[in-house]
Amino acid sequence: MFSPKRLSCTLFCTTLLLSASTLLTGCSNNAVTLPAVSVTGNWQIASSAASASRLPSISGELTGTSAAMTGILHSDSASSCIAPTSPFDVAGSTDSTGLTTLTGNGVAGGTLTITGTLAANGKSFSKASYNVAGGTCAFAAVATGATAQSYTPISGNYAGNFSDAGGQVIAVTAALSQSPSSDANGNFTLSGTGSFPSNPCFNSPVTVSSTQVTGGSFTFTYSDPTTQNGVVSNGTFSTDGTMLTVTNWILSGPCGPDSGTGLLTKQ
C-alpha cells in the first residue's frame, strides 16, 4: 500500500533524475568553443625521430586563425626525400580541445598530417607529431616528439661582431625588415642595409641582398659594388627575432677570402 510519504519520495526522486538527464543532454549539445587566435606567420616543424629521417624539418607560412588555417610548406634540406623547391599546401583547424590537425597532399606522392595542441597565443604546438602516408617520403611510423614553432619576424636595428679563425673581430650593424608574407615556396625575404664601421673593405652602409628567411634560419649578403667585396651570412635566430646567430660568414672580393662566425642582437 502506498503511503503519502512514499509517493512524495517517488515523485521527488523521479524529478531529480529527469533534471540530471536534462543537464547532461544540455552539456552534450553545447560543446565549449575556444576563441579563435591568429596563427599567421613563419613556422617550422621538426623531429629527431628515426621515422622522420627522410624529412626531418619542414617550414613555411601558415595563414589564418585556429578556426581555419592554410599554409605553404617545404622541406628544409636539399638531401631530404623532396626538394625545398617543391612546396606543398596544407589546411586544417583546431577543435574544441585545442587539438590542431593540418593535412597536405603532394608530398612526393604522399599525404602529410601534422597534429598538436595549439598554444593559447597561437605561436606553437605542444605534443606535436607528423607523418607522411604513401609516396616516396612515406614514414614507417608517426614522428612523435616534434617541435612546431612560429618565429617572430626579423625586424629592427641589430648590432654585434663577426670574428674569424685568426681572432680578428669586425663590428657589424644591420637595419633589417622581413617581408610580411612569403613567396610561392613559403620563404620570406629581408630588406635593409648593413654597416662595417671604420672598415676599409666596405663603404658603409651596404645593401642587403640575396636574402631568405625560412623557419628559424636565414641567409643574406652584404655587397659593396664600389670595393667589389661581399659577405654571405648564414645562420639561425631566436623565436622572438631578437638574436641572430651567424653560424658561417664568407668574405669574397679583394679583401678575401676569409670566413668565421658572428652574433647580432636587436637594439
Radius of gyration: 27 Å
- Spatial separation of the terminal alpha carbons: 89 Å
Q: What is the spatial order of strands in the main beta sheet?
A: 1-2-3-4-5-6-7-8
The string of secondary-structure elements, in order, is HEEEEEEEEEEEEEEEE
- Percent strand equals over 45%
CATH-level-4 superfamily name of the largest domain: Quinohemoprotein amine dehydrogenase alpha subunit, domain 2
Total number of helices: 1
Kindly state the percentage of residues in helix: under 10%
**Mean of all residue-level pLDDT scores:** 90
Count of distinct strands: 16
Largest sheet: 8 strands, antiparallel, barrel
Estimate the global geometry from the Cα principal axes. Answer: elongated
Structural class label: mainly beta
CATH architecture of the largest domain: Beta Barrel
What's the CATH topology label of the largest domain? Lipocalin
Which regions have little confidence, pLDDT < 50, spanning 5+ residues? 1-28
**What is the CATH class name of the largest domain?**
Mainly Beta
Query: How many discrete domains?
Result: 2
